[in-house]
């Protein structure tokens, strides 16, 4: 097959797309197809669309681009696919060909422009990391830069457990460019990133950045919870919660036990949801879907809240700011519509609360 | 073909009708080698909607192809004549569960594993266990008479069907079968619908026989240095009077594929046999497992392992469960195609059949695996080849023909559980030549305008390779 400009990114996946035998096993827990139930919207459908564009059997269109962007990149299809087809790489390349064919949406272009002009997804030059000296490089990431209180809390936690993070004036890791298919823009941005963050090893706050620092920049990145789980003090918070595994955490980084270990050590009883750990249902917030279909994202998030409600607990803890954001919105809407309560809390809040409790308890023992 | 999209939108709602080329392209294929665009995709959610759609289609002689998960491997859901693809996944209600009558009633879009999840608290399950159970629909299972790894004990979907509601081609709703396990009078029309691949009517409700979940089960595995020994072990086990709940074979091609894709580290032997017994009494199950392990040893089986630990049983079966799609990872440049994929032979002929399949593959420059529910006489094969090369398709065509000729010479049959569709029709028609006229007469009675999944089974083209465009792109 000759490469055409139209499919320059998809070209390398031709054999991989033939490896897909279209068994539909990826339907099992794909949050999008479970919600909308059109074959076109599942992982198999997206791979078929990509194949059609590559072979020229269908022409790129805004309609097809919209389908390709309706994916949360939750990695569940990768878990289900027995042939281990590189589904997300195919979708990402298909998106790149769509973008180069001019089918990116205004909001997607806007985010890319924001990163280009300000170094972060918000397009706000005031959103910057507070530089500090220390020993271990810490990458904050856009999601936490936009939530400075959460970042401060994590830094205080690290200090409490004897770790001194180095923070530089950083720019976005570039994952949004990659996932939205802006490959050329990422290549340019990559140089800027590497100048601003010249480390080979780092801690990170955001699970998605953790993966992308490794995959996109070859940095040996560790999520901060991996570090915290080794040094967390014991506490007696006496809480009962359920824990939502962020997709990039459980399926991407395979970090399943660390957050549970932390919660257990702090005296928090975790009641598991029906789907959890590597089989955890997606919150609906990833893959750029918030930019392309907020309503679908919200419907997916509501399913997750209902699953959490079925545990009989009233607190859901998670370790990803995007999950936290979309689940909070869904929980609020369910609360208003159905009168059911589900409080969404971040794991760093619980950790901070636990550390305070442990300190008080130690002081009381001394006294 | 003119289709009144507004009419269909009025029936099911605008949001449940799509005619964009992107949707049509996705619905043009399933897990088979075939591809053909439908004109439109429609998603009904009620019996009445199905009736209205069929009345409209029948009046206007528009083909209608029902589809569940679209995971069929013979092209049953490929709309070879265009028309309407009827996506049945929205009809996914479990209508009632009646443990006291050992039955349940479901809509066709219910997923097999979802049904079992809902049945579990009542202590029952739906016995047919296809490997694709996590995504396949009951409607699709009825259409193909699907079975799976427990067919050796429980039979196929047809054995678990008591009755059903069917919308006929003219939109009329009929109730077939009964709610009873025995039903001796008249033509068994509910059973006739099973395996009819959507050519006689649209199943809109099914009454299914359910079984108590066995309290105890154990699983074993044995390695064989020759396929013939493995085949003899399988037929000997069945002939001994033991009724295992599973008796599965994997040949070396299958083992290599699973190891390449899943990194499970299965032993590099000629064949692996996996066996399972289940029941309500532990001692009875243990006794049967011991008998099977003795039969393994009699036929030079080595490394026999038996376990009743759920984790270990899952590990033993993992490779088999993920085998079919893993075959695409057998070797660089080769992918798995769903061709000649599920023939059945008399039990005593399994070893002969498996041996000859490998010889045929060698003669025709392709790789063929052999595995499957051999305890039921069912052998799965796949043709592994370079789908980009035109010459490989000619090799595959010749291999398919030779395989089926040999299977028929052994007294076997073309399809044990995946159905006929398009790709198996030429050989199947040869096998069933004495009864084709009767089948055509039945089709004519049910569907005089030939709108229901036309050009399938006895009406399928004579050459599967040119019947539709292939879904693979060929460059050389």
- Percent strand of chain A: 5-15%
H-E order of chain A: HHHHHHHEHHEHHEHEHEHHEHHEHEH
Oligomer: heterodimer
Helix content range of chain B: 25-40%
Largest interface: A-B, 36 and 42 residues
Write the CATH fold name of the domain at 216-326 in chain B: Alpha-Beta Plaits
Shape of chain A: globular
- Major beta sheet, strand line-up of chain A: 2-1-3-4
Number of domains of chain A: 3
Termini Cα gap of chain A: 78 Å
Instruction: Please provide the count of β strands of chain A.
Output: 8
Round the mean pLDDT of chain B to the nearest integer and report it. 95
Question: What's the architecture of the largest domain in chain A in CATH terms?
Answer: 3-Layer(aba) Sandwich
- N-C termini distance of chain B: 34 Å
Structural class of chain A: alpha/beta
Rg of chain B: 22 Å
Tally of DSSP β-strands of chain B: 19
The CATH class of the largest domain in chain A, by name, is Alpha Beta
Structural class of chain B: alpha+beta
Low-confidence stretches of chain A: none
How would you characterize this protein structure?
The complex is a heterodimer of chains A (367) and B (476). Chain A contains 19 helices and 8 strands. In chain A, strand 3 (201-204), helix 12 (207-217) and strand 4 (220-223) form a beta-alpha-beta unit. By secondary structure, chain A is α/β, with parallel strands linked by helices. Chain A folds into 3 domains: 5-100, Orthogonal Bundle (Fumarate Reductase Iron-sulfur Protein, Chain B, domain 2); 117-228, no CATH class; 232-366, Rossmann fold (3-Layer(aba) Sandwich). Chain B has a domain at 216-326: Alpha-Beta Plaits. In chain B, 34% of the residues lie in helices and 20% in strands. In chain B, the strands form 4 sheets. In chain B, strands 12, 13, 14, 15, 16, 17, 18 and 19 form an 8-stranded antiparallel sheet that branches. In chain B, strands 5-6-10-8-9 form a 5-stranded antiparallel sheet. In chain B, a hairpin with a 4-residue loop joins strand 5 (94-98) and strand 6. The interface between A and B is large, with 36 and 42 residues.
């Amino acid at each position: 097959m000759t490469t055409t400009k139209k499919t320059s990114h998809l070209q390398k996946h031709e054999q991989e797309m033939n490896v897909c035998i279209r068994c539909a096993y990826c339907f099992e827990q794909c949050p999008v197809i479970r919600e909308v139930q059109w074959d076109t919207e599942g992982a198999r459908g997206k791979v078929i669309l990509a194949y059609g564009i590559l072979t020229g059997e269908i022409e790129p269109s805004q309609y097809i681009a919209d389908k390709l962007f309706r994916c949360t990149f939750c990695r569940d299809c990768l878990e289900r696919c027995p042939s281990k087809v590189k589904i997300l790489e195919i979708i990402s390349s298909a998106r790149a060909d769509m973008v180069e064919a001019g089918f990116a949406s205004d909001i997607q272009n806007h985010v890319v422009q924001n990163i280009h002009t300000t170094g972060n997804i918000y397009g706000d030059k005031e959103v910057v990391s507070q530089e500090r000296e220390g020993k271990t490089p810490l990458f904050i990431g856009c999601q936490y830069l936009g939530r400075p209180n959460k970042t401060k809390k994590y830094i205080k936690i690290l200090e409490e457990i004897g770790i001194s993070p180095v923070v530089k004036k950083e720019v976005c890791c570039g994952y949004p460019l990659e996932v939205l298919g802006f490959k050329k823009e990422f290549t340019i941005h990559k140089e800027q990133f590497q100048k601003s963050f010249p480390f080979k090893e780092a801690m990170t706050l955001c699970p998605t950045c953790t993966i992308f620092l490794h995959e996109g920049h070859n940095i040996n990145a560790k999520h901060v919870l991996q570090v915290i789980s080794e040094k967390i003090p014991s506490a007696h918070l006496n809480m009962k919660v359920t824990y939502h595994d962020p997709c990039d955490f459980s399926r991407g980084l395979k970090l399943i036990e660390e957050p549970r270990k932390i919660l257990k050590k702090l005296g928090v009883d975790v009641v598991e949801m029906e789907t959890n750990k590597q089989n955890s249902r997606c919150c609906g917030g990833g893959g750029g879907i918030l930019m392309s279909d907020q309503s679908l994202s919200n419907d997916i998030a509501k399913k997750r809240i209902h699953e959490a409600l079925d545990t009989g607990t009233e607190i859901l803890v998670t370790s990803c700011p995007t999950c936290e954001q979309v689940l909070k919105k869904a929980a609020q809407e369910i609360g208003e519509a159905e009168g059911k309560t589900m409080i969404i809390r971040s794991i760093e809040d619980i950790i901070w609360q636990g550390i305070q409790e442990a300190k008080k308890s130690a002081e009381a023992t001394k006294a | 073909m003119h289709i009144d999209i507004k009419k269909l939108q009025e029936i099911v709602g605008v949001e449940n009708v799509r005619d964009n080329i992107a949707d049509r392209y996705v619905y043009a294929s399933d897990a088979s080698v075939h591809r053909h665009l439908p004109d439109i995709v429609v998603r009904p959610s009620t019996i009445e909607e199905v009736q209205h759609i069929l009345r409209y289609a029948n009046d206007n002689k528009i083909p209608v192809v029902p589809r569940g998960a679209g995971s069929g491997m013979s092209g049953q859901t490929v709309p070879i004549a265009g028309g309407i693809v009827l996506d049945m996944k929205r009809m996914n209600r479990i209508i009632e569960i009646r443990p006291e009558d050992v039955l349940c009633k479901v809509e066709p879009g219910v997923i097999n594993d979802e049904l079992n999840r809902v049945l579990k608290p009542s202590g029952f399950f739906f016995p047919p266990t296809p490997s694709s159970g996590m995504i396949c629909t009951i409607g699709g299972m009825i259409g193909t008479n699907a079975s799976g790894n427990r067919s050796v004990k429980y039979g196929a979907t047809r054995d678990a069907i008591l009755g059903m509601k069917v919308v006929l081609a003219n939109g009329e709703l009929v109730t077939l079968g009964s709610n009873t396990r025995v039903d001796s009078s008249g033509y068994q029309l509910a059973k006739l619908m099973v395996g009819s691949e959507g050519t006689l009517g649209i199943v809109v409700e099914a009454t299914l026989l359910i079984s108590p979940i066995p309290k105890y089960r154990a699983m074993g595995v044995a390695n064989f240095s020759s396929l013939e020994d493995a085949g003899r072990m399988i037929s000997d086990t069945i002939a001994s009077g033991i009724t295992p709940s599973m008796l599965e074979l994997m040949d070396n091609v299958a083992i290599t594929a699973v190891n390449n894709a899943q990194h499970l580290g299965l032993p590099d032997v000629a064949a692996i046999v996996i066996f399972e017994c289940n029941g309500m009494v532990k001692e009875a199950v243990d006794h049967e497992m011991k008998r099977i392990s003795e039969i393994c040893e009699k036929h030079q089986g080595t490394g026999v392992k038996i376990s009743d630990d759920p984790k270990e049983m899952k590990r033993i079966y993992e490779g088999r469960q993920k085998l079919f799609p893993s075959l695409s990872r057998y070797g660089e440049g080769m992918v798995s195609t769903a061709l000649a994929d599920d023939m059945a032979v008399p039990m005593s002929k399994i070893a002969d059949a498996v041996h000859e399949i490998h010889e045929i593959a060698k003669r025709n420059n392709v790789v063929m695996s052999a595995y499957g529910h051999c305890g039921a006489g069912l052998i799965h094969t796949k043709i592994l080849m370079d789908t980009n090369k035109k010459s490989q398709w000619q090799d595959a065509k010749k291999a398919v023909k030779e395989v089926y000729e040999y299977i028929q010479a052994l007294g076997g049959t073309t399809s044990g559980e995946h159905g006929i569709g398009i790709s198996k029709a030429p050989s199947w028609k040869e096998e069933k030549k004495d009864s084709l006229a009767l089948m055509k007469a039945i089709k004519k009675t049910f569907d005089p305008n030939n709108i229901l999944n036309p050009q399938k089974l006895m009406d399928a083209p004579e050459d599967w390779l040119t019947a539709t465009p292939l879904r693979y792109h060929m460059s050389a």
